[in-house]
Amino acid sequence: MKTLNEIFEHTLEDMYFAENAITKALPKVAKAAKDAKLKKAAEDHLEETRGQIKKLEQVFKSIGKKAAGEKCDAIEGLIKEADGLMEEASGTALDAGLLAACQAVEHYEIARYGSLREWAKDLGHDEAHTLLSEILDQEKATNNKLTNLAVTAINKTSPSAKAA
Ligand SMILES: [Fe+2]
Questions:
Q1: How many structural domains does the chain have?
Q2: The whole model's pTM is what?
Q3: Which Gene3D superfamilies does this entry report, sorted A to Z (predicted)?
Q4: Residue 163 C-alpha to ligand 1 middle, in angstroms?
Q5: Most exposed among 26, 30, 45, 47, judged by the fewest C-beta atoms under 10 Å?
Q6: Distance (Å) from CA 73 to ligand 1 centroid
Q7: pLDDT tens profile 18-50
Q8: DSSP code string of the chain
C-alpha cells in the first residue's frame, strides 16, 4: 500500500467489515441491557447500521469497486471487550459498561469516517464524500444520544446500587 487511494480503499473495506460485525453484536447488547432506553438505543442503531452498510455499498459502487470486507482487528477487539462484560458484569455495572462499550465503538467509527470522507474529498470522489459525511453525522448523533442517556439515566443510581 503506497497511495492515498490505496489507504482509502483499504479503510473502506475495514469499515464494511466493521459495520457487518456491529450488526451481529448489537442484538446481543439489546438483549443483555436491562434499561429499556438502552435496549431501544441498541435496536435503533441496528437499523441505522443496516442503512450504513447500504450506503457503504453505494460508496464502493461510486468508485467502481465491488463491496468487500477486510478483517478489522480494532472492531473485533472492541466487540470482544463487550462480550466479556456481558459475561462478567451485572446490574448497574452491566448497563453502564455496555453503554460505554457502545460509545467506544462510535468513537472508533467517528475517527475512521472522519478520515475516509476527507480522503474521498482529496481524491475527487464527490459522491463518496457526501455518503461518508452522512454516515459520519449519524455516528456523531448516536454518540451524543448515548452521552445523554448515560448522564440522564444509566449512570444515575441509588446510593445502595453505587455501593453494591
Ligand atoms: Fe456505523
A1: 1
A2: 0.92
A3: 1.20.1260.10
A4: 35
A5: 47
A6: 16
A7: 999 999 999 999 999 999 999 999 999 999 999
A8: --SHHHHHHHHHHHHHHHHHHHHHHHHHHHHH--SHHHHHHHHHHHHHHHHHHHHHHHHHHHTT--------HHHHHHHHHHHHHHHH--HHHHHHHHHHHHHHHHHHHHHHHHHHHHHHHHTT-HHHHHHHHHHHHHHHHHHHHHHHHIIIIIT---HHHHH-
